[in-house]
Write a structure and sequence with these properties.
The chain is an alpha+beta fold. The chain has four helices and seven strands, in the order ββαβββαββαα.
């Protein structure tokens, strides 16, 4: 984990990687940062935090793809429930609420969390199809330099394809786990 602080502005950036199926670990880490006085202000390659004393906050994340109008409606639903939208990164949306005001998760039940993961996997499936369309293993009749360039590109795209497939399978496993827990709760 990389960490860099700017004392003058009381800003800190951290590099931390979470996989989609680690949403609870991800949320717990953001909440722990808040308890230490660091509030998330933006997300990109790095998490950017600002030193503040108005927390601590409880953080939760959601995956949602939409157009601008749909996004406004989507964010309004969370705002009405008391959640503040902090930032978004690659269709992942970060929300927070004061710990003292927290009563329930943004996921009212297991099914809503399952639907979030399904939205992610549908989006991921589109990326998989795009990778498959761009991988071209037909190198016959090409010059040496062009063959090498095609091989390098194809190897990189294949690695991305395999990585994306592994993530999709892991997210699917998380969906199965949530469904099983939901069924166990219904039975008891």
């Amino acid at each position: 984990m990389s960490e860099k602080m700017n004392e003058e502005k009381k800003l800190m950036r951290k590099l931390k990687i979470f996989f989609p199926w680690e949403e609870e670990k991800h949320q717990a880490w953001l909440t722990a940062q808040s308890k230490a006085g660091w509030e998330l202000v933006k997300m990109g390659l790095f998490y950017w935090f600002e030193k503040r004393d108005d927390g601590p906050y409880r953080y939760e994340i959601d995956f949602f793809e939409s157009g601008k109008k749909d996004k406004e409606t989507y964010l309004a639903v969370f705002e009405e429930a008391g959640w503040e939208h902090v930032c978004s990164s690659q269709n992942w949306h970060y929300f927070r609420i004061l710990e003292s005001e927290y009563t329930t998760s943004i996921y009212s039940d297991a099914q809503s969390k399952i639907e979030m993961f399904q939205r992610y996997n549908y989006s991921s499936a589109f990326v998989l199809v795009m990778f498959i369309l761009f991988v071209d293993f037909d190198w016959m009749g090409q010059d040496g330099a062009l063959i090498l360039a095609n091989v390098v590109v194809d190897v990189l795209l294949t690695a991305l394809l395999i990585g994306n497939a592994i993530v999709s399978v892991a997210v699917y496993q998380r969906i199965k786990e949530l469904k099983q827990k939901s069924e166990e709760l219904i039975e008891n």
